[in-house]
Model the fold of this input.
Amino acid sequence: MTRRADHSPDRERLETVAVHPVEPMDLLRIGFVALCGLGSLLEIGRAFGRIDVAAVAGVVVGGYPIAEEAFSALAGRRMTMELSMAIAIVAACAIGEVSTAVVIVLFVLVAEVLEHMTVSRGRRAIAELVNLLPEIATVDRNGALREVRVAELEVGDTVVVKPGARLPVDGFVVSGRSSVDQSSVTGESMPAEKIPGAAVFAGTINQTGALEVRATRIGRATAFGKIIESVEHAEQSRAPIQRIADKLAAYLVYFALGSAGLTFIVTHDIRSTISVIIVAGACGIAAGTPLAILGAVGLAARKGAIIKGGRHLEILGHVDTVILDKTGTLTLGAPTVVAVRPCGATTSRTLIERAAIAERPSEHPLARAILEKARALGGELLVPDEFQSTPGGGVVAKVDGVEIVVGSAAFLAERRIDTRAHRPAPGHDSEVFVADAQRFIGTVAVADVLRPEAIQAVDALRAMGMQTMLLTGDAEGIARTVGARLGVGEVAAELLPDEKLARVRALVCEGKVVAMVGDGINDAPALAQASVGIAMGSGTALARETADVVLLGDDLLTLVETFRIARRCRRIIAQNFRGTLFVDGAGVLLAAYGLLNPLLAAFVHVASELVFVLNSARLLHAGPSVSARPSRGTGSPMRTDCPKVRDSMGAASS
Ligand code: ADP
Ligand code: MG
Done:
């Protein structure tokens, strides 16, 4: 990795994922110890008397760094390969087998270098992400174009991005048209078309045309900065499995000493006893687990899923129930108004205008649709004097002393507004009810499109044996239609935020490992309650903050991919667990029977740990992507041991 001579605080923080190449000193030392081993073999040192000078020199020079590591492991009460091998080396020397000791030293040094190379390859994969950010940006300040360092950019700056250049900030396009390769941030392989108003992300590549971008987030705050941060964080925040691995490593010390004691009592053979100590300390699980977690979190990040810690990765690997929110999660969350249905003397224009005034301050996708429609009709919109939003219900606004209520039928019913004049619309569009001065004035029908990959994603989840559930605040009819189209196991509609929460809590209490996927403010409590909360990248800031995992690209297949990666990580760690127990168990038996001499035992120990580290390193490579699964309904039968959905609760809640 090429380091840059840039020391802006932001970049420095981004580069805390440091990569240390193999040091020449290490290689020199290995060379020297190897020569000493050879010398000892050829008995060159013997010329100076009875002491094997070559072997002693090798043990002293090569053993020094091992002893250092061993002492720090001892102080930290951790069992490491170095500690176990230090015991072996001392023991070998004690029985006069200095030439064995020097070969063990050589094994350890070589294994350390190999392990180091593997781990830094993992880190490098992540550090390379950092290099995706440009250093210099062209910024438009008061009409003059200036080149400034990215670290000096500010939110609100307009940045000019030439074709072929990387975007330095998150923001939106103010002018220009282009296609942008967003694979580094969202994992999507297809370039995305960008026109004025479109959101763009730092670290992505502008391809065809020049773009002017208004910066909304810079440095660490960008989606890209978050990727780096979460990956660094994931490595520090230890997964429970990691603690188990460390504990196992500690128990292995007692196991090694116990087995050795027993071997000595039974066989009185000091060489077998030493072999037992050497082989029994092998702990591939402690060596391999951090790398597996690092690799999985890094891989998920590159696919567009930010996992905010090793703990969440582990839970993701165990998930058996996936709860999906509808609006903004299964649908694009970019609804359009398809019909304006006033009642009484109200005109369409008045209806949409009144609704739009009330929705102006709202962040809800339905609000955006209504505002867009109002803007298309032209004219100035008043700004409400008072505004109150009820997640999962609707909004109440006051303008010139008149109250406007916009929301679900139940929301209006709660406010004692008579909506009997309403006749249900044909088709399956969401309807938003509008009341002006306590009087129902009509509905606005809004259609939202299912995400193109939603069916495939739900199929894939089912094929993985997961139970799927749709929870929505929207009306029953629409929820059922969407649920049936996707083949979701269970549907519950017209839920208020705390009812969503209650559903999730009930499942968690039943012992299910629940992933909740949502985007809205109304989903936040449920996201927090779920075993693991997953937010859509385009979701509200609250959802993204509350969630444990964020899907940057909003791609539901990334969700599937993330589960796959987590499961793969879990499998690899389990393999390392079993492998460690097997190697240690079998090794101890062989050694106790005198079938492993100290040298072979050291080889088995070092080689097995290396194998487990390499096994974990498989996660550093991207696995096969989610493929289309046309096999609808071939998944395992759904478990439906959860209470069945109530038919409607809207009317009951007034
Ligand atoms: P979902 O759970 O599917 O994401 P929400 O809980 O966000 O849906 O919304 C549920 C229902 O509440 C909507 O279908 C709509 O009727 C009503 N609603 C919520 N917020 C608003 C709003 N700002 N404007 C109009 N209706 C709203
Ligand atoms: Mg939603």
